[in-house]
Amino acid sequence: MARPDTSQPVVSLGTNRKDVDRDQKSEIPPARSRSRSRSVTPPALSGRRASRHYQRSLSPQPSRQQRQQRLARAKSRSISRSSSRGRRPVRDERYYCTDSDSGLSYASSRPGSPSFSRPYSSSPQSERLYLRSLSRSVSRSSYSSSRSRSRSYRSSRSRSFSPAPSRFGSRSPSPRPRKRADSRSESPPQKRRRQGSFSRSPPPARRRSPPRNRLPPDIDRQRALERKRQAEERNQEKNKEEEVKEPVDPKAEYERLMELRSGGTYVPPARLRALQALFTEKDTKEFQRFAWEDLKKGLNGAVNKVNKQNIREVIQDIFKCNLIRGRGLFARSIMRAQAASLPFTPVYAAVVAVVNTKLPQLGELLVTRLIIQFRKAYRRNDKPVCISSTMFLAHLCNYQVAHEIVILQILHLLLERPTDDSVEIAVGFMREVGAFLQEASSSANNGVFERFRAILHEGQLEKRTQYMIEVLFLVRKNHFEKNPIIQEELDLVEEDDQITHMIGLDDQLNGEDTLNVFKFDSDFEESEAKYKVILAEILGDDDDEEGSDEDSDESSDDEEETAAVSATTKVEIQDMTSKNLVNLRRTIYLTIRSSMDYEECCHKLLKLQVVPEQEIELVNMVIECCSQEKTYMKFYGLIGERFCRVNRKWRLLFEQAFGTYYDTIHRYETNQIRNISNFFGYLLARNAVHWTVLEVIHLNEDETTASSRIFIKILFEHIVEELGFKKTNQFLQDPELMEYVAGVFPKDNPRDTRFAINFFTAIKLGVLTDDLREHLSKNVTEDD
Length: 784
Known about the structure:
- The protein has helices spanning 17-25, 48-57, 64-84, 124-137, 140-156, 221-243, 250-262, 269-277, 285-304, 311-320, 327-340, 345-358, 360-380, 383-398, 404-416, 420-440, 442-458, 463-477, 524-550, 555-569, 579-594, 598-607, 615-627, 634-646, 648-663, 670-685, 706-723, 725-732, 750-762, 770-783, and strands spanning 95-99, 105-108, 159-163.
- The protein is an all-alpha fold and 784 residues long.
- Strands 2-1-3 form a three-stranded antiparallel sheet, with no helix packed on it.
- A hairpin with a 5-residue loop joins strand 1 (95-99) and strand 2.
């Protein structure tokens, strides 16, 4: 028998890793050629190691029953490990080989394949490493060649094979052990049959279905059928009871649906309409909530479908909704629609312009919210929102819903510290509003373009931004042909009917966000009736025509109803809060401050079209603005002179203001008194107001105060400065004016005469009192 293959060290069962390492260092003779000799020469070992190795080889082998038990335990452990690691179990067919001649033992992947034999180790780590390397290295061709070699070995060597007992289990289940001869038998093993493939999964549990419609033999069939029939009857009765619906509590159902809707659950419209039909009382919160939802849907639908072709019809639909109650919804809906479709911004601006003529509070609310939105977006660097807000404000300014002062403030903010984004927004802004600024305020428009030119010359921006500025100059050169102020299809409002809202960028604004939320109205029916009256006033003519066409038989009744409505609609609304007056004063102030010269200022102020009752406010605002300056500015005197020469009514108003300010001059500070007196002195010197206004002045010790004496002093100093002493004396000695200046130069009382002479002498205007001196000297000589 030939010697076994000793290319791998041969180790007996139960050896340690340390022993394997020591054995590998020992000298192992090379493997010899295969022959029929059965003698196997053990490896050369010396000393205590050889004796211990030999004793282990002579240890009794486990019995067949013990081997089967070990194999079953190893198989169960390997299956549990592979299932816990999520891997498919790998078939392992290692066998423990024992040489009958030498008594040495080693592990082999296949019985009789010495090329794959390796020393058996009891360490679980070495077992796992070996199995992993073996599964990766062994291929199908090498496996077939090893089987062919194992057949030749079986014919030439007598060995007994038994499954390798694994103390620590295997990573893959091992096949069922076959019956083998006793390991101590010297006869060769029987020829094995080739094992076929087997399923790695356990067989499915087979269950027999119970017999159908079969009763056990020990149960009465008639009684069972009767019980079944009775059970079916009870189930039918129970189902009928469930089908009978209990009366629905509308409030409970409403609250439940509202909670579902707030949570995002879809509620079918038919179900909502059915629930709405249950609420008939208009004073309930539920009915008003459904009315609020219908109002929201109506406004959103009308705003979303508006375009150039159907704008007139859509505006009528919008007015039919209660805009006073839903003004917050209208502003929010139109702002969202404009931000979603910027090309339709002129259409939305035209809708707002028409609504603003009838309900100005809606236009004011929309402009306020747009300014607030722009300020928030500017702080957050939200470029898309800034673009949409500025574009909407530009078109509202074109329709004169918003004043141009807010446009100039936004441009100043964007171009003060220019960046690529801010300049891009400003360029788009100017393309929309440039034509209007060029017509309304050419000087301000020129200043904006000069700022663009300076930014372009600095060259600190990107090439793309610089090119946009150049294109803007080209658009200006073409007189904004593609960006007109108002398109012809959208010119729906007369300029005289439009109401302009003066709202600044730095004002303290309130967006009234609570108007977007539903609130219970205890006077719901009254408010709805009032809006119907307003709606009849707005759309009364159209409704009457439609009604006469549809109902020809009831024309007399319709006429009576319309007459009653027209009688009730003639209600004068008085502003008791003075809000309109405050807005007018703000508008006048901003107009004056934004004007480049007095001619532009007068032109803008005259275009304000102030009502006759508030014309005095314009005069007062001009004088107040003059008084707030650090020093007197001739700019305000020129404005006053121009107004006095334009129309006689303005001259009378300024003369009235002279008496008012003289009577209340003690309320002002010294610097304000100086500016006011210089203003009126300029008007008197230019003969813009008549000299008869001096009749309110009584220069004496009893009727004058320190403030009034300062006013008189500066007034005559400015007149003398403008006209000189000669012309001033000519005006004062005019026989027609003697009675009006008698209070300034009193002659009825010597005490008052001396006071006037001393006063003018103290202010170095004693030349004006020569007539008084003569009068006083004559009276004194006569008395003596």
